[in-house]
Write a structure and sequence with these properties.
Blueprint (H helix, E strand, L loop, with lengths): L8 E3 H4 L10 E4 L5 H6 L2 H8 L3 E6 L7 E5 H5 L11 E5 L2 H4 L18 E8 L12 E7 L2 E6 L12 H7 L11 E5 L4 E5 L4 E6 L3 E8 L4 H4 L10
Parallel strand pairs: 1-2
Antiparallel strand pairs: 2-10, 3-4, 3-5, 5-6, 6-12, 7-10, 7-12, 8-9, 8-11
Organism: Chrysophaeum taylorii
GO molecular function: cis-regulatory region sequence-specific DNA binding
GO cellular component, one term: nucleus
Amino acid sequence: MGGSCSLERVRVEEALEWRRPPARPFILEGFEVNTGFANSTRPEVLRSSRGSLKVKLTSSNSYSQGERVASLAEYLEERPRELANESWYLFGPETSLVEGYSVPRCGGRWCDADLVASSFGVGRRGSGVSFHTHGAGFSQVLHGRKRWFFFETRPPRFDPDVSTAAWVETVLPGLWMNKPPIDCVLERPTDLLYFPRDWWHATLNLDDINVFVSTFVADDAAAAWPFFSSPPSL
């Protein structure tokens, strides 16, 4: 079920010079500043020290419709369902869970600390979010492996309420000869995945418990600061 990444890899030091958002997804390697945060969010630590914490869950379909509150311990025992609109997912700005996370830096205002927001996520094997779009940002998997699928335009043959796992099983095999997605497994804790604004993407967690953080950046950066130099062509 995946184990490679077709995205170009660049050193995080290079991205520090980029003055506005790139147009394509890529992997930044060497992001080594969140070791302490990773230790504090190991699955066994979350269970023992944060298990009673009440968290807000949303559905894992394309629209993240509906809300439900449960304890973190209760959520970690749940199994995803085939229908994404019937599966609950923890991914959001849980202040106490994301506290202490160091956000990525770059040269332009588009990822200044006062223009970004981080969301903390935990997902069981087979969970994930169906194809959707939103603003640009970065994602770091601290524990486990997370598979990403990207299309620059609307994906073929997807149902917003069908889980990514079901899409991989029933639709993906028929796409390899005709417009396959960009396919990337994010598995190194020191890697960052950059996702551009308005690119369609879906995610699939591959291990028993996956812990990750996504940092969303300023959506209007390209329009607000067009005079900044462009990043390298990817």
